[in-house]
Amino acid sequence: MHEFRSHTCTQLRAENVGDTVRLSGWVHRVRDHGGLLFIDLRDHYGITQVVIDPDSPAFKTAELVRAEWVIKVDGKVKTRLEGTANPDLPTGDIEVFATNIEVLSESEELPMPVFGDQEYPEDTRLRYRFLDLRRERIHNNIIKRGQIIASMRKRMVEQGFFEFQTPILTASSPEGARDFLVPSRMHPGKFYALPQAPQQFKQLIMMSGFDRYFQIAPCFRDEDARADRSPGEFYQLDIEMSYVTQEDVFQAVEPMLRGIFEEFGEGKSVTQEFPRIPYAESMRKYGNDKPDLRNPIEMDDVTEHFTGSGFKVFAGMIAADENVRIWAIPAPTGGSRAFCDRMNSWAQKQGQPGLGYIFWREGEDGGAGPLAKNIGEERTTAIKDQLGLKVGDACFFVAGNPKKFVDFAGQARTQIGESLNLIDENAFDFCWIVDFPMFEYNEDEKKIDFSHNPFSMPQGGLEALENQDPLTINAWQYDIVCNGIELSSGAIRNHRLDIMEKAFDIAGYDKAILEEKFGGMYRAFKYGAPPHGGIAPGVDRIVMLLCGEQNLREVVLFPMNQQAEDLLMSAPADVSNRQLRELHISLNLPKE
Length: 592
What we know:
Layout: E1 20-33, E2 36-42, E3 47-52, H1 59-64, E4 70-79, E5 94-105, H2 122-127, H3 129-132, H4 136-158, E6 162-163, E7 181-183, E8 191-193, H5 199-207, E9 212-221, E10 232-242, H6 246-264, E11 269-270, E12 276-278, H7 279-286, E13 300-301, H8 303-306, H9 312-320, E14 325-331, H10 337-349, E15 356-359, H11 370-387, E16 394-400, H12 402-419, E17 427-428, E18 430-434, E19 439-442, E20 447-450, H13 461-467, E21 477-482, E22 485-492, H14 497-506, H15 511-517, H16 519-525, E23 532-535, H17 539-546, H18 577-582
Parallel strand pairs: 3-5, 6-9, 11-17, 12-18
Antiparallel strand pairs: 1-2, 1-4, 2-3, 4-5, 7-8, 9-10, 10-23, 13-14, 14-16, 15-16, 18-21, 19-20, 21-22, 22-23
């Protein structure tokens, strides 16, 4: 028999009854039932119940063991007594009667128990992450993460993609988030940077004659933590393709994502045909560019119904400024004064003056509420008909310049959907957001600037750049969104130097800047660049969704805390003066 185990703690079944076996694992918990001891023995794979009666040679040792001791158990498999089977365990029909127990490793008193799923302070969980990872929920999340990544790789290879590894030490990027810098010992005063993403490398791979690239790529950004963004590092499924249109990228990515979410989504419905929603439409209907389509609420423009109306506040705003619009936020089933008052109070807590509303109730012509009385039955009914509302529903209104109120309107839509339980919790709803603006006006610098990725291909190409108002030009850029979480941005790349130089010129960058900051890419474009495009869905966010978690910390092996500290390994840490001298670095620390 093997020195440590003949089976894992999830393998034994009824057909093993009568077998002599050896198991090794952690003591999950010990129970004393009137002198008969029960040990739940746990390993990576699962749990087996071990029974030790007072006549067993193993009993004295069993009395000593405590939670999280590592032990080896020899014994015989028996059927559990009638009525004691555990249907929640794969091994729930059997138990092992121990004949010998050997302690392989003892455990000190635990700073946090492994048994159960209680909440503990973040600092405790991260400092003792190796214990946190033993807990069933977190352990299963990490196992699922590995399975998801394996499935991603399989699906990409089946589509004809090749996996490449790009450099970790590279040059600092002038765009995007802050870089993590790495000093060079061999080149004093110079620094490498950890890649924020393999963006330039994957484009260079296309220019090197390869066709379909992917990589489970580590990315490094020195930015603040959020629930859906880890500080320091994260992983993405990096993809690039040659000779493709936007639709070709969609057709490669959709089946992969749909398959992953069907495989690991535990029966939840998954969007079969991902809708394409233009950026401007998404902002108007949902109040943001990452809409949660599980929420059925769609906002609409109802300015015409308030123009010249008896509600002087809105009518006066419309008359004074042509940019003022009135947006309606429907609230199906929200037709009560109590709910409308709660939403009004919520809006005031967000720093807003309030939320105008109308609601419709049985036996009342037109709508109810102050706005309804001011604008009259005809306009109130027209609003109800436009939005497809009925008796028992309500509608809320925001007014002003949409650029200024759109974020709040989107938050109000979410608040209404959550408060009225309108969000389908058993669905993964995907969509593409397309037609992002290529440029925007920078109010601070009073100039036109890139809106998103400066290397996206403008729709209409060079002709559009030369003849259109830059603020009307869209880019071949797109986002993939699931349940209100942006999984990735992507684009068809600008592969022509003349178009690139013109785009940068519009944004105020001359050719010299382009050559200086993006020299490698610029040179490559001179020697035949194929049309290409790609995307990079975030692995951590995909796993977070599929595990039903709200924080990336729950699906990452060794995450940092909110201050970008690794409490387990004590990083970042001081280094010795000798190391600093080798790197020709002296410290200029802030005064405390």
